[in-house]
Amino acid sequence: MDPLSALGVASNILAAIDFAWTLLTEARSIHNSSSGLSGEAEFVDCLIRDVAVLDAGLPALVEANEELHTLLAESKKITALLQNALQAQKSRGGRSKWSSFQSALKHTWGKDQVKDLTSRLGSLQAQVTRHVQMATHKEVTRGVTAISRAIADIESTNIRLEFKRREDFQELQRSLVQAIEEGTRSGRDVATTINGLLEAATRAISESAETVRADQHILNRLYYSNIQTRHRKIEDAHSRTFQWAFEQTDAGHRLKEWLESRDGVFWVYGKPGSGKSTFMKFLCGNRSTPPCLQRWAGDKKPIVAKFFFWIAGSPLQKSQEGLHRSLLFEILRQCPELMPAVRSAISELPDWDQPDVLQYTKNLLLLYQRIVTQEIPVKFCFFIDGLDEFQEKGRGHSDLIKILRQLELSSDIKLCISSRPWTVFVDEFGSNPEWTLKLEDLTRDDIRHYVSDKINEHPQFKTLTHINTEYSQVVDAVVERAQGVFLWVLFVVRTLLEGLIYHDSVSTLYRRLLVFPPDLEPFFQHLIDSVAPIYREQMARYFEIATLAERPLLAMVYSYLDDIDENPTFALLLAQSKISSEQKSLRHDQLRRRLDDRSRGLLELVQCDNLVSSRAPGEFFTYQVDFIHRTVRDFLHQSADVQSLLQHNLGSERFSLTTCHAILAVVKTAPFHHATDIDQLLHLIQTLFFFASKSLAVNPVSEKVLGPILDAAEASYRSTTSSIDEQYEAFLFIGHAARIDFFSYVHKKLTANPNMLRKSRCDPGLAQSWPALYYALRPALYTHHVSTRTVAHLLEAGADPNEVFGGDRTVWADFLFTLHISLKNEWIPHTHMDIIPDKEKSRELVRVLLLHGADLNAYVAVPHTSGLVKAETLINRVLTPDVANQLYQEVQQISDQMKAPWNVKEQERGKR
């Protein structure tokens, strides 16, 4: 029986017991009735009717559980006893005045029998009360759990997005539980009370949830997985540093005045490694609004939003789109009151129902303008770090400056920005020195505090200063040579601490200091030169992989490089088996030590901000390898001497191919447990093809070695998707191979399974996979082109350009969509079409697709247009009508020639 029905049964039994108990314990004086009956007789008739109604209602609830069946039977016995006693009293008649029904019963049953009934009623009441409590608890638990689950689903998204609406739902949940508890204690009709409360709460939750889910949907479209990565990776300011920013110094006074009372732009600039990003993180705070900004806002609500450009990050971390999405996300997260205006603005966009509507800079700017022009009591302060790290196809830093100026729409908005002192920024923001800070001129005392704290923390420093007080002067020497560059200080302190371990003399510590060049580039060169010759090959490999990779690679990839050194077939022979926790920890520790010696700290093990989930420290996906600072990457790219050194030490080693082997080892041993891990697996496979393309570019002979690596990776991928119950993409590998123009591999796969592509259209399992042709027609960022040769090979093997996938898309329509936005230079993120293709190559691709049945009458959804556009019309647009018409004639002529032999044979049959 469900808890609510059981609650109803128990409540009705309890009502009958309460009725009987009242009769036995409460004094009921009987007076003459105006109806003509004696008072006793009328009272007894009333009792009989009431008990009969209660008794008749109970059998309708006999579906109760076994315990309630027993209690129901006992209740009916007591009801029957009462009814008999009442009838006996009625038959006695008489006009004596009863002081209570209990006194009357004593005349019929006797004192002991009444006492026994009273005891039975007490026990029965207690037991039924417990059932009421249990049923109430179950029903409340079930109802509240269902509602709580709905709240929790919304809350979990709110927590991830840090959406301020979560407090509203917490209060609603608390009110619900309190109301139910009060209803339970109120006594009588508990079931109805609880049911009513739950229904009312469900309605309230449903109404609120609909709005909140709509708001969450907007936030989710603005959010991206690494939106906070750069901010988190920046080290927090060391204690006692940057305190001058709020003290009575000239710089502190200027900054404080701007923060507390001024509008416009404040520019922080400095040389590489001077601590600009750390200072910006310090200024904007971590969670709470800095008090000075609260004073600036006055009686308005201050909204602080931040964005840290990162040239080594994903496209969104260094582009206008990433900037706008981050700022809008921060604004709306903190100020849900602005959501109605945003929902209204989105509904007015021509392509409002498209999933990528919030991935266009134009649309994002419109939303921003709508937000900041709302008449609500808010002020906005934006902290934007690393303008020099902005990087976007077809746009330069001047374009970024225009965007920043567009952000300044009123006196309620101001920007604090930082960059290197490049001319483009000096010209724009340096004209008013009052609102600028040159960081390296202000951090002398900060560097002193940092060096002093680090050296004084060392246990050997006190011992040595007792021997010779001149050790304390080393701090001053470091400060003098630092020239405001914190990054340089970081490395110098490392070597000085190493000297303290070995009790270096004061003069030896000074020599350690003097061998470090005061400028970063000579300093980096010095570190690289100091790597022992025996490790330089591994050093060169580490640096080449780190600079080549689109984003930092998993530490486990680097960990397997030495295994490949020992045995080139290591990864191919490695069994498919999850690596143990002990082995993971051992490999991470081993790699940390190797990086320290082979890169002199220029590369380090850092915690991931992963594609998938956060994992406990020591786990497989926790760590990746990255440069200690972006200036190291810049130096490695720009220094001809370093490039020469790296190439010399690499010799004939094909490091891209070695990396492919290492990635295969990771794919085989990674502990994928859940369907949520699939993104990490797919990213590894994409990285494998990235390095495969690099290997093919420098050494076509590597084709023979790459084939078995890809086959082994695909077998591992198939096994993993099966074990975690995730869909296996049948054409993932042949599609990626076509994408990088690995023609021999594609040919081998199709030769081994000639019907592979034709089968996909009739096999329900394969039909769910994305078509191989889809991959082939979308160039990767690292290949920059689509191979007509490989596309034609897929078409000849049975690939269908009109194949439907992903719901209602076709490969042909998707290709035309990306071709249109690419040729029109309307770059859209995630389409991998940021390279404007050659029109002649585009014409050839269209020609090949049309020859293999691409439908000219198909319709394509095009951005910034209403409705759909016919394929033929779209081709005329992107190729021009003259070129398109010439192409159609050519295709028709070739098609006629292909049909000619068949027509001749038909004519000959007709003659016979």
From TrEMBL:
Residue span(s) of domain DUF7791: 530-673
Domain Nephrocystin 3-like N-terminal: 241-420
Keyword Cell inner membrane: no
Organism: Apiospora rasikravindrae
Alphabetized Pfam families for the sequence: DUF7791, NPHP3_N
Key words, A-Z: Repeat
The keyword Repeat is assigned to this record: yes
Gene3D superfamilies on file: P-loop containing nucleotide triphosphate hydrolases
Protein name (Swiss-Prot/TrEMBL): NACHT domain-containing protein
UniProt cross-references to InterPro entries, sorted A to Z: DUF7791, NPHP3-like_N, P-loop_NTPase
